[in-house]
Amino acid sequence: MFEQNYYMNIRELFLITTLFLTNHVVGQKTVQHNNQIWTGYFNQTRLNKHWGFWAEAQLRTNENFVDNLSQSILRIGGTYYLNNDTKLTAGYAYVNNFSPANGAKISTPEHRPWQQIQWHTKYSNLRLMQWVRLEERYRQRLLNANELDKSFAFNFRARYNFLMQVPLSKKKFQPNTFSFVANDEVQINLGKEIVYNTFDQNRLFLGFSYQTNQSDNLQFGYMNLFQQLAAGNQYKNLHVLRVFYFHNINLMKKK
Q1: For residue 49, what are the CA distances in angstroms to 178, 251, 252, 253?
Q2: Cβ contacts of residue 194 below 8 Å, gap of 6+?
Q3: Element (H or E) spanning 7, and its range?
Q4: Residues of 42-54 as b/e, b for ≥16 C-beta within 10 angstroms?
Q5: Cβ neighbours of residue 154 under 8 Å, at least 6 residues apart?
Q6: Total structural domains in the chain?
Q7: What is the pTM assigned to this prediction?
């Protein structure tokens, strides 16, 4: 009971923080609405008692669900397992923005080192996953609509992700079962180049998970993304169909 109350308190704290930051910056504003599809493959492989790696690929559409592409992400990292439920990861991500702002006709790259602590909490009828991530974002600037500049914009971004999974059958989390998934992620910008958008975005996901085997699952559902842009009074409100596959491999030798 103490653990459940503890995690609920953490969750409530971040929700209150998000609402405060959002309401604080919202005055007269313009909001862009759009519909997207996000697909992703996430692999976490454990090599031995303490070491493993993270590999990830994502592809996102831009508008009206299927029109054009907005972004692709390739992310890798090395993982150190403190124990079976807690792990530290550090790595690098390459992000390609296919549809940058300001009428650009070329894509813009972003280089993103990242560090993370992730932990899992498992009960018979409930699974929780949380991680805290820090990113260093190097986004290449545009010289004009057809040419990249040699300089980069830079800022830090802190992210907190909370996921709750509840089984929908008596078999609980066994293969070929479904569960309900609620997931929320808060992102905060940091750094001297950040002026008006300390609050970056909030991602709220509601959907389902299908347990394909003992360790892997397919998640699908609806995500609402609310983001404040750099101008401070401009926002994005995205309605996203999200389909992610989580592939977990354990190569430890069984004793």
Answers
A1: 30, 9, 7, 9
A2: 155
A3: helix 2-25
A4: bbbebeeeeebbb
A5: 136, 137, 138, 139, 191, 193
A6: 1
A7: 0.87
pLDDT in tens, the chain (255 residues): 544 454 455 555 555 555 555 554 445 689 999 999 999 999 999 999 999 999 999 999 999 999 989 999 999 999 999 999 999 999 999 999 996 555 677 899 999 999 999 999 999 899 999 999 999 999 999 888 889 999 999 999 999 999 999 999 999 999 999 999 999 999 999 999 999 999 999 999 999 999 999 999 999 999 999 999 999 899 999 999 999 999 999 998 776
The whole domain housing 85 covers 2-250
Burial class, 241, CB count within 10 angstroms (exposed 0-12 / middle 13-18 / buried 19+): middle
Q: How many C-alpha atoms does 239 have within 13 Å on its Cβ side?
A: 6
Interacting residues of 35 by C-beta distance below 8 A, sequence separation 6+: 63, 64, 65, 238, 239, 240, 241
Residue 238 tokens, joined: 């995205």
In a domain, residue 72? The reply is yes
Residue 188 lies in a domain: yes
